Amino acid sequence: MIQTIKKIFEPTIKWDDDSLIDYILELEDRIEVLEEENLNFRSSIYEMESRLETKINNIHPVTYNIQGADNV
Questions:
Q1: pLDDT tier at 41, thresholds 50, 70, 90
Q2: DSSP 3-state assignment of 29?
Q3: Which of 23, 25, 6 is nearest to 15 (CA)?
Q4: How far, in Å, CA of 34 to CA of 36, rounded?
Q5: Residues 6+ apart with CB under 8 A from 23
Q6: 15: Cβ contacts below 8 Å, ≥ 6 apart
Q7: pLDDT tens for residues 9-20?
Q8: Which three-class secondary structure string do you get for the chain?
Q9: How far lies 56's CA from each of 24, 47, 64, in Å?
């Protein structure tokens, strides 16, 4: 029974030192790529925000001259 439980919870992938180091290096490379993509994404978002604010600021609101019966 104990052997069965140990077998269930033991890791399915056996790592030797070289393959583990290679896997860690691969993950570090992926992290660098994702960080760069994140930086590019943020830059694009800030650029879009800036353009949107510029467009909003260029819109002139309509001014209504509404006068009540007392102001006539």
A1: very high
A2: helix
A3: 23
A4: 5
A5: 15
A6: 23
A7: 776 667 677 888
A8: CHHHHHHHHCCCCCCCHHHHHHHHHHHHHHHHHHHHHHHHHHHHHHHHHHHHHHHHHHCCCCCCCCCCHHHC
A9: 47, 14, 20
